[in-house]
Amino acid sequence: MSILFEPYKIGPLTLKNRFIKSSTAESMAGPNGEVTPAMLDFYETIARGGAACIFLGHAFVHPLGKASPKMTGLHDDRLIPGLRSLADVIHRHDCFVFAEINHGGSRVQGGCAEPVGPSRVVNPSTGLLARELKFSEILEIVDAFGRAAARVREAGLDGILIHGAHGFLASLFTSPFTNHRTDEWGGDASKRFRFLDEVYRSIRIAVGNDYPVAIKLGAKDDMPEGLSLEEGAEEAARLAKAGIDAIEISGGIPTKEAGASRSNILSREQEAYFLPYAKAVRPKVGKLPLSLVGGLRSPDLMEEIIKEGWTDFVSLARPFICEPDLVNKIRAGRREPVSCTRDDRCRVGIGEEGLRCRRDENPAG
Ligand SMILES: Cc1cc2nc3c(=O)[nH]c(=O)nc-3n(C[C@H](O)[C@H](O)[C@H](O)COP(=O)(O)O)c2cc1C
């Protein structure tokens, strides 16, 4: 049997294989962030397709952290029943589900919230200038992460994924490009890490030691003057020491030139573009469960990455949107690359219509 189908643990959970559905904002929630029937269908189809665990699209922990219209919310107890239905449909298919919890910071669209951040700096992903957060506001946000995490556990989901990447609030704090604070929330790498550390602790207190808490970590910013890989790997080591249960390796603050979701993955050389980051993180975290995201297509490459010990899981995002049953197909012996080349037609009109694959639709339509 391929190592891709050997079970492996994250905290107390035994995942049936090594495939994780990485987070993709669904743009399907109701006006207050409620789970909708469209989301239940979307995720049940993916769960049925054989993935061991689904990381839901990012969800906001505080009303002022809503990053985009139709984003899922975790800021209110009234959202718990909807989240419970989502957990139920996914669990029917022997699949786990983690909520990705986030605050948009200055990566906010459509006037959903005021762009805020550690310092008054333009977010390279959105071009929006952040207002500097006050000390009291930072504490309120840290608290909101803990409260949101408690709701996720209450709703019966299996774990938390902290969004620590892609130019949202946590990565704005860790990056020297966007954090110029001179108080206790900024300075050298250890001080810039404080926000993430406090967020992790707030969550841990809220959910307890026996509940899985993972992070999607931007291990390096794709820009000069950004977080270095050495600093990113050091962050991973700090999180491991603090008790995090798993890390999904991604890139930090994307720019218009180098996004974390790269397009047009047409050759094997273009796949797994964050593998060098995983190679830097692995020696710092011992046997902590790691996953790698970004451009993966070839089953034999996924197998090789795991066999060599760089990560224990592989995370795929866009491929599950067009081919939800890709894991079942690989289990049945398919060796050719997954069909999604990341042409990014799934992004077109997502804000209005919700997430779906549009690669076979008329480009003019
Ligand atoms: C439409 C879309 C929505 C995304 N939403 C999220 C999200 O909510 N949270 C997150 O951490 N990453 C998000 N990502 C990034 C993916 O999780 C993933 O890191 C990236 O697409 C690279 O993986 P892939 O090549 O397998 O798609 C999104 C990507 C796309 C294309």
Can you characterise this structure?
This protein is an alpha/beta fold and 365 residues long. Helices cover 32% and strands 14% of the residues. The chain has helices spanning 37-48, 80-91, 135-154, 169-174, 189-192, 194-207, 229-242, 275-285, 299-307, 318-322, 326-331, 350-353; strands at residues 8-10, 13-15, 19-21, 53-55, 59-60, 72-73, 96-102, 116-117, 131-132, 159-164, 213-218, 246-250, 290-293, 313-316. The strands form three sheets. Strands 3-4-7-10-11-12-13-14 form an eight-stranded parallel barrel, surrounded by six helices. A two-stranded antiparallel ribbon has the order 1-2. It has a two-stranded parallel sheet with strand order 8-9. Helix 7 links the parallel strand 11 and strand 12. Helix 1 (37-48) runs parallel beside helix 2. The longest helix is centred in the middle third of the chain and has 20 residues, at 135-154. 52% of the residues are buried. The mean pLDDT is 96. Flavin mononucleotide binds at residues 22-25, 57-58, 100, 163, 166, 216, 250, 260-261, 293-296, 316-319, 342, 346-347, 350, 355. Flavin mononucleotide (FMN) is lined by residues 22-25, 57-58, 100, 163, 166, 216, 250, 260-261, 293-296, 316-319, 342, 346-347, 350, 355.
Descriptors for this entry?
globular; 8-stranded parallel barrel; alpha/beta; 32% helix; 365 residues; two-stranded antiparallel sheet; 14 strands; single chain; binds flavin mononucleotide
Percent range for helical residues? 25-40%
Oligomer: single chain
Q: Could you tell me which ligands this complex binds, including any ions or cofactors? A: flavin mononucleotide
Strand arrangement, major sheet? 3-4-7-10-11-12-13-14
Number of DSSP strand runs: 14
> What fraction of residues sit in β-strands?
5-15%
Large-scale geometry: globular
Structural class: alpha/beta
Mean pLDDT: 96
Order of helices and strands: EEEHEEEHEEEHEHHHEHEHEHEHHH
Number of helices: 12
Main sheet properties = 8 strands, parallel, barrel
The gyration radius over C-alpha positions equals 19 Å
**Regions with little confidence, pLDDT below 50 for 5+ residues:** none
Distance between the termini: 44 Å
